[in-house]
Each structure stands twice: as C-alpha cells, then as structure tokens.
Amino acid sequence: MKISRAGVRLPFILSATVFLTGCLAPVTIDADITTDGYDYTLRVESTLADPRAAMAAAEGRLSAQDDENARLMAANDADLPGFERFEYLGDGRFAVVVNLSGTLEAAGQGAGFPNTRRGTGTDNYLRIERAEDGTIEISSPEIPARNLAQLEALPFRPSGEVRVTPAPTDRVVEHNADRTPAIPDRAYVWTLGSWEDRISIRIAPQDDSAER
Q: What's the domain of life for this entry (predicted)?
C-alpha cells in the first residue's frame, strides 16, 4: 500500500549525545538498507552539519577554536558502531561513512543513523525498528510545521537518495517511496530535496505471521 509522506511527528534536530555540538542534520545522504527476515544492513555516506555552526560559518562568525573543537569531537567519536569515517570538513560540516549490520531479535530492537549507539532513538535521521506486530519499520522524521521556517533559513537543504531493498521473500505492507522496484532492481527509492521529505516503509518478514 502506498502511503503519503506525512506520518508520526518526531523531533527534527538530531541531538545525539555523542555529538558535543548538540545537533546534526543531513546536508547530503546516500543510503542503502537491505532486509532479509530480521537481518538488516545499513550503508550510509553522508555530509552532516551542525545547523548553528553552519549558520555562523555562513555569516563569518565561526572561530578557529570552534573548528578545532569540532575536529576533536570527530576524532573522539570515530569509534561509534559501524563508523568507517567521521571527519570534520570545516564550516560546521562532517563527512560520515557508516556500514552497519545486525539482527532485530525482539520487538523494540532497532538501529539508526547517525547515532548508531542509540538505535531507534528519536535523535536519529534514519531508523530501523522491529514493531510489536512483527513488521519492520524503516523511517525518517517528519518535520513539524512550526519548525519549517527555522529550517528554511539554514544555508543548506538535505539532498540525496535512500534505497531500501527487502528480500524477495519479504512482503512490503505499505510505503511512500518515490520509485518502486523494477526488475532486476528490487529497491524502493526515495529522492530527497526538502526538509519535508520523509521516508516510511513497513515490511513483513518471511517468518512473520502477524500480517499474513
């Protein structure tokens, strides 16, 4: 079933505790997620930005000490689960590469990006979670209307592509993808270009009987 891009509202700013600046948001993102039963893989290449630092850089207010603190933060947090790269680029932006895999063994378990330690925490832009009904939910946050004006003032917007590829034996219950699978590609694809773009897909694994 195709669903709209609207959905459950979640906090937008990614306030992962490991990020000492307090919040990070996607500038660019290229993500591949695969599921096979309750096994998943998550591969992401992204540029993230601290919105406050990015605004300061655009206005010429970002100090050399701010830059140095950000470099130290990236070095300290480069050992997050699945992180292959976490590097400060300057101007409040970070390059991140994540390659994570695992198994959702029970309801409520999950994984997420960029805070790979927090799993399904609302501070993550991408979340993979096993729901109580046995389905797998993959989603990104919807932006509350009251926050949109603030976001539109930032010197960047998110852009990129997210691809979700379920195993051939798994069943997609609902989704809001921009593009659906075409043989031989089995991916559901979202093209991002706005703060309002949201990812949502629900998958019933082969060994799940709740939705069958």
A: Bacteria
DSSP reduced 3-state for 121? coil
Judge residue 17's burial from the number of C-beta atoms within 10 Å of its C-beta, 0-12 exposed, 13-18 middle, 19 or more buried. exposed
Residue owning tokens 């629900």: 202
Give dist(CA 93, CA 74) in Å, integer: 10
d(CA 151, CA 3): 25
CA–CA gap between residue 51 and residue 160 (Å, rounded):
18
Which of helix, strand or coil describes residue 42? strand
DSSP state of 53: H
The per-residue pLDDT for range 17-71, each reduced to its tens digit, is: 333 234 688 999 999 999 999 999 999 999 998 888 888 888 889 888 888 888 8
User: Amino acid identity, residue 80?
Assistant: L
DSSP letter at 167 equals -
